[in-house]
What we know:
alpha/beta
Amino acid sequence: MTEGNFTDYVKVYVRSGNGGKGSTHLHREKFVEKGGPDGGDGGRGGDIIIRGNKNLWTLINFKFQQHFRAEHGGDGGANRSTGADGNSVYLEVPLGTIVKDALTDEVLFEITEDKEEKIALKGGKGGLGNWHFRTSTNQTPRYAQPGIPGEERELLLELKVLADVGLVGFPNAGKSTLLSVLTSAKPKIADYPFTTLKPNLGIVRYRDFQSFVIADIPGIIEGASQGKGLGHYFLRHIERNSVLLFLVPADSPNIVEEYHILLKELEKYNPELLDKQRLLAISKTDLLDQELQGLIEKELQAASLDLPYLLISSVAQQGITILKDRLWQLLQ
């Protein structure tokens, strides 16, 4: 998926349908001088329904249409005929979409399963016809209920990427390059920070026709948990990943310190992120000779890190197969 097509945050205006009016019709028939009330009920207004679709990966469709209105219910008719119910409107969203009230920021619900449906707004109930109001003392009521109006509100649709593995690292750590090597994705790659501004997804083909999804998430900077840089814009995507792959370049001044900074930002944002499986990959090792690679390994061993690590090079295709094996083991 190209970065320009990835949309993960949209605001939409939705309105459910009004209920139809009840009928005040009085029965008319030849040779029947005074027919009684036979007004039917109004139909129910259409709902606004959010439905999960496993084939969608982005909210881009809502960039081009932000207003959705369900159909109104039909009015009641003669002979106690009920008005037609209004058609509901279905908004198809990717799995992992959170629906919020735009005014209060309250989380209404979350869509996590394919074909899962949640009613965002209920349609108005149809009014009762005059047939319901007949009594022994009022045998020809000339009134009926109006339909109940539908609801309207603005909704925020927020997508948290559902990927098995999330790439975590500082800007320009080589995440996009690694994604392009592991998968058939074609993210934007350049030698300057913040090349990636939106998450990129790719499918890693593994042995025996198995696969898993990996997400290249925009780079973290110190203070991201407080909203600096891209801040919360990308941190929410990490919450969905089963495994976090930390990527630190081999030319970093202090590999261990850089890893701890990344870990601290995740902990500040959401301490539960530290419960996820983690793996540390030292990238760009093609820049180093064997002696320098040995020094890095000694530095990592001395730091007694609480996670496995390995040295890789996306450009030279070094350690890529081992990386896939490690990730697959963690996912299982």
